[in-house]
Amino acid sequence: MSIRGLKKKQPKTFKVKIVTVDAEMEFSCEMKWKGKDLFDLVCRALGLRETWFFGLQYTVKGMCTWLKMDKKVLDQEIPKEDPISFHFLAKFYPEKVEEELLQEITQHLFFLQVKKQILDEEIYCSPEATVLLASYAVQAKYGDYDPNFHEPGFLAHDELLPKRVLRQYQLTAEMWEEKITAWYAEHRGIARDEAEMNYLKIAQDLEMYGVNYFPIAQNKNHTDLLLGVDAKGIHIYSINNRFSPNKSFEWSAIRNISYSEKELTIKPLDKKAEVFKFFSSQLKVNKLILQLCIGNHDLFMRRRKVDSIEIQQMKAQAREEKARKKMENQRLAREKQLREEAERAKEELERRLFQLEDEARQANEALLRSQEAAELLAEKAQIAEEEAKLLAQNAAEAEQERQRLEITALKTKEEKRLMEQKMREAELIAVKLVKESDRRAKEAEHLKQDLHEAREAERKVKQKLLDITRLNYPHMVKYPQYSPTDTREANFDKGSIKLDLKDIDLKRLSFEIERERLDYLEKSRKFEDRLKELKSEIHALKLEEKQSGLYS
C-alpha cells in the first residue's frame, strides 16, 4: 500500500476547544462525529461518569445554546471559528446534591460553577450567606487554617464575595477578610470535598439555584413575565421578582409540553385545570425551553424510580469511596494531629533546645567570663603572691629593720645612756674643772699674793739690807772689793745667795703657775670641743629616733 493511499484513508478532522470552569482542553474531532461523540470524549478526559448533568454549550448570535447529542457537530449552528469553542457546564441540577452527586469530579465541577454564578450575581445570596460560603471556599482551597501560615492579606487576590455585597457595606478588604477568616477557622478538620459539599448544600437552598430564566409574555405584544425551569418544575415569575414564583408547575403535575412557532403550551395532568400558554421572543428559545424541560423531567422521573445497575454500582462505589476517604481522612487527620503534636513537640524541643543552647551559650559566656575572671584572679593571685612575697620580704626587711632599729634603739639608748653618763661625767668634770679652776685661780691669787708679798718682802729686805749696808759699810760704796775674812761680808754673801735662791723659787713658781694655766686652758678647749661633739652626737641620735619612729 502506497503512502498516498494511507493519506487518503486518514479521516478529516477539525479542532475544538473545551472550556471548563477552571481549565481548557483541545481535541481533534472527526468530521462525522456527532455531539455525543465529542461529549463522551470530554467526559472520558475528565474521568466523569455522571454525564447526564452536563452538556456542551456554545454561543451563536448572542444566544447560549446546548450542543445536540444526536446530530453531527458540524451540522449544527455552531460558530465558524478555529478551533470551535464549547463550554462544558452543568445543564441540569440535582434536587439533593448530597444524595445525587456521587463522583468527586462531579461535585467539584458543580462547586466551581455554582460559585461562579454566585460571584457573577446570577444566583442571589444574602451577605451573611456569602461570607459563610466564602469561608467554605477558602477551606476547600487552602485547607485548615494556620495563623502562622495564613497571615493577614492572604485572601487579597481571591474573589470570594459578589460585588453587590462589597458595594452594599462600607467595609475594607481587611474587614471582609477578618469576617471570612473567623468562619474559616471554625472549619478545621474538614476535607476539600466535604467543604465543597457543604458549600453546595447551602447553595441549593437559595431561591435562584439551578433555575434557567427565559423572558415570556402571556400575549404577543408584551414581555412582562419570566419562565424558570429547574429540577422541580416550571415556575412563572414577575419580571422584577426572581425569588418568589407567581405560579409553579411541578414535573409530576405536568401532562404535556408543546410549542408551535413562538407559542409554548403547558398542559397540567389534571384535565380540569387551565392550560397555560405563553409566547417567547424566538422559536429557538421555545426549542431550548422544551429541551431543558424534557431533560429535567427525565431526571425528575429517574430519581423516583429504582436505580439502574450502573447507578447502584456507582452509588456503591461512591459509598466505598466515601468510606475509604472517611477512613483516609480520619487517618490523615490522625496523622495530621500526630504531625501537629510532633511539630508542637518538635517546636517545644526546638524551643527547649534553643533555651538549652541559650543557656549553654550563657553558660559558655559565664564560663568564659569565669575563665577570664579566673585568669584575672590567677593574675591577681600571682600579683598578690608576688605582693605577698614582696610584703613578706618587706615585712622581713621591716622586721630586720625593726630589729635593727630595736638594736639601734637599744644601742641608741645605750649610747644615750653612755652619752648622758658622759655628759654627767663631763658635767662633773666641768664642775671639777670649774672648782679646780676656781681653786687654781684662788691658789694663783694666793700665789700671786704670796709672790707679791714675797716680792714686797724681798723689796723690803733688799731695802733694809741696802739701808744696813749703807749704815755699816759706807766705804763699800767707794771700794767694791771686800775682804774674804770678814764675817759680815760672808753673811752678806749668804743673804745674797738666799735672795737669789728665793728669787729662783719665785720664778719657778711663776713658771709652774703659767704652765698650769696653759694646761687649764688647753683642757678647757678640749673639754669644749668634746662638749660640742657630744651635742652633735645627741642631736644626731634625736634625729635618728624621730626617723625610726616615722619609719615604724
UniProtKB/TrEMBL annotation:
PROSITE patterns: FERM_2 (PS00661), FERM_3 (PS50057)
Subcellular locations according to the entry: Cell membrane; Cell projection; Cytoplasm; Nucleus
Protein name in UniProt: Merlin
SMART domains per the UniProt record, alphabetical: B41, FERM_C
Keywords: Cell membrane, Cell projection, Coiled coil, Cytoplasm, Membrane, Nucleus, Phosphoprotein, Ubl conjugation
Record lineage: Eukaryota, Metazoa, Chordata, Craniata, Vertebrata
Gene name in the database record: Nf2_0
Main localization category: membrane
InterPro entries (UniProt xref): Band_41_domain, ERM, ERM_C_dom, ERM_FERM_C, ERM_helical, Ez/rad/moesin-like, FERM/acyl-CoA-bd_prot_sf, FERM_2
Domain spans labelled FERM: 14-304
Binding site for a 1,2-diacyl-sn-glycero-3-phospho-(1D-myo-inositol): K68, M69, D70, K71, K287
